[in-house]
Amino acid sequence: MEKFAFRNIFLLCLLLSQFYAQAKKPENKFNVLVLAERGGDHEPYVKAGLEWIAVKSDELHFRYDVINKADQITDEFLTQYQLIVQLNFPPYTWKQDGMKAFESYIEEGKGGWIGFHHATLLGEFDGYPMWNWFSIFMGDIKFENYIASLVSGNVGVENMKHPVMKGVPENFVVEKEEWYTYNQSPRPNVTVLASVDENSYLPKSDIKMGDHPVVWTNEKMKARNVYIFMGHHPALFKNEAYLMIFENAIKWASKKTN
């Protein structure tokens, strides 16, 4: 009898400990859709990014889903998510329904958006026409060139008071980046948060555009949005300034964290 009673007490304690553990576990604050480009030159970066997001989802208490095609994006599908992270996914291959749903999501402020790197590969690629709405969203720009050989560059924060730049050093170095150039600077049409000093490129490069913003937000849209150009090399996930920008962007764009 004593052995039976001890076993029951042990099981009761185990059940209570599991109950309290579940009770103390914080609920997810919001849901995130990660639209990730897989394969090709950007695969190592995207893989590292997804691993980092997995860690941050626990720390910041959000749930996330990853898709690698935009085919399933519709108005109804996007109602599940308070934030879209466009992790190097380009602005083409989208179906018309998905494009219209995304435009509505941003214009009507149904959720937030963070775009990285390949999201501004705007132009006619792989037989797809340029998405004109997305070009205007990004500051009325079109992709022109890039530094294929990869160079480092000094990034300077222009708006230290913006929440995305909270705690970020005023200047920091980004290694091994492609640094896109566009037909014009997006600055007249967006709020620039940071830019790269093209004179700091190492090795030096003649591929320049003059005024060269690399982090910006389009305040004309109701959705909180931020584009972060840097996103080619996985070494970025060892760059403390970059990680701080990424985390701040999640907090700010989602409106769900302090």
Polypeptide structure, described:
The structure is a single chain. By secondary structure, this protein is α/β, with parallel strands linked by helices. The protein has one domain (28-254): Class I glutamine amidotransferase (GATase) domain (Rossmann fold, 3-Layer(aba) Sandwich). The chain has six helices and eleven strands. The chain has a nine-stranded mixed beta sheet with strand order 2-1-3-4-11-10-9-6-7, with helices on one face. The protein has a two-stranded antiparallel ribbon with strand order 5-8. The longest helix is centred in the N-terminal third of the chain and has 23 residues, at 2-24. The protein is globular, with a radius of gyration of 21 Å. The N and C termini lie far apart (54 Å).
CATH superfamily: Class I glutamine amidotransferase (GATase) domain
* Structural class assignment: alpha/beta
Name given to the CATH architecture? 3-Layer(aba) Sandwich
Mean pLDDT: 92
**What is the global morphology?**
globular
The spatial strand order of the largest sheet comes to 2-1-3-4-11-10-9-6-7
Q: DSSP helix count?
A: 6
In CATH's first tier, which class applies? Answer: Alpha Beta
Q: Largest sheet, described in full?
A: 9 strands, mixed
Number-wise, the strands total 11
> Into which percentage range does the β-strand content fall?
15-25%
CATH topology: Rossmann fold
The figure for the number of domains is 1
What is the CA-atom radius of gyration, in angstroms? 21 Å
Low-confidence stretches: 19-24
